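Let us begin with a simple case.
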Amino acid sequence: MSSSRSDRKKAAKELMRVTKTSPSHRAAFGQIPNAFSTLLRPLSESKVELHLDLQEDLITTVLNLSTDDSNKAEMGENPVAIPLLIESMKYGTTETIINATAALSTLTQLDSNKLIIGKSRAHVTLLELLRAGHPLAMREAALTMTNLCTVHENKTRFIEIGAVPVILQMINGSMLVDELLGILAQLSTYPNAIEELREVDTVPCLFRIMRDSYSGITKENCAVILFSVCSKNEAFLRELWIEETNNRTLAELADTGTERAKRKAFDLILEMRRALPSLRITT
């Protein structure tokens, strides 16, 4: 990019424009040697937030370029790209923060990038955005977390920094319920996450969502979490039985849910029968 500050801004604006409108330019960009390092050099030479307009244009260009599959691996392996995206998720205009998060989300579509991003401490920034970011940034953060949580190490990282109580609080507040239930279902098979889920009123919350939701996937994720929380725990199975006696939510799910939801619902009913043989439990 041009060396003077004014020329850099003009070049960044033009590059943002052409990479937004032209797929061929996005693909061609990645073929240029050291293209991504050169693009990001103005941000890597000083604090990213010092030149907000230039930062916004460059990060938007990164987002545009990341949508081309041929660029994803090179961007993930570039030593400055992911760190600068994470910095721009913390400092910058609202548009910059949203676009930086969206770019990171796009990069997580590639499996090798999930490992790289997981080691970069992006999970801390993502959880902060999820907790208190702009609504669009929160949604992008949730999508990024969903993609990252297909990797075991990343699930452990999110649990260790307290993602479970944050997600539960947001679900109870009716925020991004469908998206966050998907993340919680991924985390709920881990012992530390199960302990945290058992410390709050998870069962009533999940049953309320199952009764109110029209989404088969949402109901499925609720059933997955319920199985993790209640399985092999008599106290929680008894709570489950009370709910089932009053509303027959699991019986209905075992009949009408997705295939996975049907299996989980049926397994929970069997668990109740085994653990509480004196109680009348029907399907």
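The second case is a distinct protein. As before, the sequence precedes its structure tokens.
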Amino acid sequence: MLKKFWIVTNDGKDTNHAVTEKVKELLEIAGRSCILCEKDAEKNIIRERIPDMIDCAIVIGGDGSLIEVARTLWKRDVPILGINMGTLGYLTEVEVSNLAEDITQMLKGDYLYEERMMLEGMFPNGKKDVALNDIVVSRKGDDLRIIYFKLFVNGELLNSYEADGIIISTPTGSTAYNMSAGGPIVEPTASLTVITPICSHALNTRSIVLSSDDEIVIEIGEGRRGNIEKVLVTFDGATSVPLETGDRLTICKAKESTKIMKINKISFLEILRRKMKGN
């Protein structure tokens, strides 16, 4: 039974914390313990103040808020329930209009878990970071020049690129930047990796779908005149790490996954259909 809940609120969405307080009230009436997330002055989660024992994290906001929590709780195997405070989301599944009914259903144990694959990126210095949506290599700063890089898969050169960047996406992230860049939409519980160049300077460059077991290496090349290229590696649009010519980024499937709590019976295809209809 889920007993201890950690509630994370997007203060820009639930401005007066009315939804947050309602969720807290519903949980406490049912005899559950709940702790509100503590943030710093810049609205960042204070990791040191996250409780050691959590049965479930409830995120009040949008998909971006849920992704932030998923990265924050990496390696802790805590299921996440999203309460949608924005437009129709792919990850935040509880609507405010059904809040009491859905929370009650969850407390009765009527829910499922979806395991969502994550990507792990490792840098030459051994440091690592993870992404639920995507890892993006792009130009650094205001430089409008294309960047040059090589892509290796399992140690074998796949292609050399001249492009604005490249997106390495999970199935969950296939409906985000990957889709905007012309990449394929993938069923989110699948286990594979999508590679989509950004504005590639080649006519025959398309997205590539690989097994999640494949190891991907991106090597930053020299500029056209032999100059040092400077790029940024960004994880889920949040943290960024600079790289330059000669550096390598290794990407593989993370050992840990994100556990998304599913309460309603709306399928991914139904959400996708609504999104397409809305556009």
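The mean pLDDT is 92. The longest helix spans residues 18-29.
Keep these points in mind for the review questions at the end of the chapter.
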